[in-house]
Amino acid sequence: MGIKEDLAAAKERVADRVKTPEIPVVVGGKTHVLVFFRAEPLEWSTVTLKHPPREGIALDRQNGYDIAGVSRAVSVSLGRFVEDGTEVELSAEEWADFWDVVPPATGRLIEANVWALHEHDDEQEVGAAKKGSTPRSSSRPKQS
Fold first, then answer.
1. What is the pLDDT of residue 123?
2. Considering the domain boundaries, does residue 112 fall inside one?
3. pLDDT for 132 beyond 80
């Protein structure tokens, strides 16, 4: 396949609405199911740039952005609760309320899933592509 075909396939992949596994969260003493959809690359890049790493947080420094801030920022556009097989959207105000009451361990679980969907999965895809690709020969003549 050439670049045009690869680009078309990549655009289809972005449109596929890839999402996290179901994340169980307890709110009000009841378990609810949450999923996050993958952001389009430009949206992800933009939101990570708006949330620089927090001082003294090694994970943020490693990723180059505030993973907690990014997870909260994408909640409204990418997060959905699943009730009886139906996706339920929350308003920005409802998401703010959710983040105010979610236990820290659950928040970290959500952050890990959002990170994996956008960073780890992409890293795995790049690694797989590298293993499957063959080196191209240089079109430059060898210098003597």
1. 56
2. yes
3. no
Residue 103 corresponds to which amino acid?
P
Residue 101 lies in a domain: yes
pTM for the model stands at 0.74
Helix (H, G, I), strand (E, B) or coil at 143: coil
Asked whether residue 72 is domain-assigned, the answer is yes
b/e sequence 52-78, b meaning 16+ C-beta within 10 Å: ebeeeeebbeebebbbbbbbbbbbeeb
The larger pLDDT score, comparing residue 1 to residue 104, is at 104
Is the pLDDT higher at 9 or at 24? 24
Looking at the 3D structure of the chain, how many domains does it have? 1
> Tokens standing for 61?
């420094």
Q: Catalogue the E-assigned strands of 2-130.
A: 23-27, 30-36, 79-83, 86-88
Are 41 and 14 in contact by the 8 Å Cβ rule? The answer is yes
